Amino acid sequence: MDDRKIETVVDEQVARRLAAKAAFLNETLDARMRQQLLDWLGNWGLEFAVHVVKPKESLSSIARDYYGDLSKAAVIAAYNDITDPNVISVGQVLRLPEAKSKSPLPKGESPYLFGIHDRGGESLMAAAGRRGWVLVTESLGSNPNDWGSSSYADLADSGYGVIVRLNHGYSPNGTLPYSSRYADFAVRCANFVERSSGCHIWVIGNEPNLAVERPGGAANGEIITPQKYSQAYLACRAAIKSRSGHQNDQVVMAAIGPWNIQTIYPENRGGDWVVYFRQVLDLISGKVDGIAIHTYARDGNPANLASEARMGVPYHARRSMFRTYQDFMEAIPAESRHLPVYLTETNQNIAWEDVNRGWIRQAYAEINAWNADASHQKIRAMILYRWEQHSGDIWSFAKKTQVVADYRAALQNDYRWYR
Question: Left if phi > 0, otherwise alpha if psi is -120 to 50, otherwise beta: which for 81?
């Protein structure tokens, strides 16, 4: 390999001193500087990972994926002798010094953005060769002596990502129990997790800022403030991680219901949903493994997915349509920007019309575009709500052939959060 000259600049006095000392020691300054630099360098950079540039990648996005730090784009540029870090080409082979080659995802996690709420629709993803996520919701109660559980091993063994939401119950029993039973609920959750298989991602509760999710019902139930939710979450997380084999499980914060102002308390007189979300994250900072978000549209018009329309006063800073997810993402504090984020529910906020307007295709394209920006915290899943048909439930699309066709079309795109 050819030699390359490396130059540096020092002030005049330092230059004279360096030259004089080299002469005093009967050395050349070049030889001394070369040896000092080699000693400093050591073995650094002898090991490297190899990456082939894919469409829409940048040095910054590659640096984020391998080093977890956007600024390490400069490292990749220097090592590969790239003079303009904004110019790389698809198919270009890059060597990434001191970066580990990406390891396969654990069983029970998917590299794809696609997902469906409930079992039953996963065959659509399998048929497209993109086995995304399946979210299952469970009602556990709060009996600490209950060891009932479920197995999701069939999903994980088939290559799907698995997320399970742990609820105390459904209305009027509450997504969490009364606060006096939080400790018992935590034990019940841990019992369930310990005896279950095929899942290691657990969401604790659902939309605690909604009145309908309160224990005791919407009218007279116990309000779940951020302080109460964080108390329950931390108890559940500690209990789950105390069980053998579950120390590294992801215990995920519940999604907060967007646009809902029903939970008012002294620190949030307007019931602002994003304020609630941020306050929970602040209360559990450093003791949270992932974040769930719900984002909805207002209709089935694909053009409105990119709308920047805002709410009315006093919530005029908040987005009023599908991009409400961005309000939540922007509210995540810096110390939690490394965490996995899952959009665990999305739909048109009305019953699915049996029409294929390309809404689902465009919604996934929107989230993929978000992830393509190297400065953004990645979203790992967008899960369509929902597959199963329940009494009084208007959200199922299992029998909506045109909606299913739209989903199949979306699945033709190789949308991944992990490559």
Answer: left
**Which residues does the chain have with pLDDT short of 50?**
none
Q: Which of 222, 207, 118 is nearest to 172 (CA)?
A: 222
**Which tokens hold the place of 55?**
């469409």
Cα–Cα distance measured from residue 160 to residue 115, given in angstroms and rounded to the nearest whole number? 9
Q: How far apart are alpha carbons 170 and 85 in whole angstroms?
A: 52
Distance separating alpha carbons of residues 135 and 336, to the nearest angstrom: 23
Strands 93-97 vs 48-52: parallel, antiparallel or unpaired: antiparallel
For residues 95 and 21, give the distance between their C-alpha atoms in angstroms, rounded to a whole number. Answer: 39
Residue with the two structure tokens 């922007």? 330
Residues 6+ apart with CB under 8 A from 138: 150, 164, 165, 166, 167, 192
Strand pairing class (114-117; 379-384): parallel
Question: What pLDDT is attached to residue 47?
Answer: 84
Instruction: Note the maximum CA span of the chain.
Output: 92
Pair 273, 261: CB distance under 8 Å = yes
Report the run of H or E that residue 258 belongs to, with start and end.
Answer: none
Looking at residue 249, the DSSP 8-state letter turns out to be: -
Structure tokens at 304: 């409105």
pLDDT of residue 1: 59
Q: Is 85 exposed, middle or buried (0-12, 13-18, 19+ CB in 10 A)?
A: middle
- Residue 49's DSSP bridge partners are 96
The first and second tokens of residue 250, run together, are 């992801």
Residues in the chain: 419
| H or E, element range at 126 | helix 122-127
**Which amino acid, one-letter code, is at 380?**
R
- Cα radius of gyration rounded to whole Å, the chain: 26
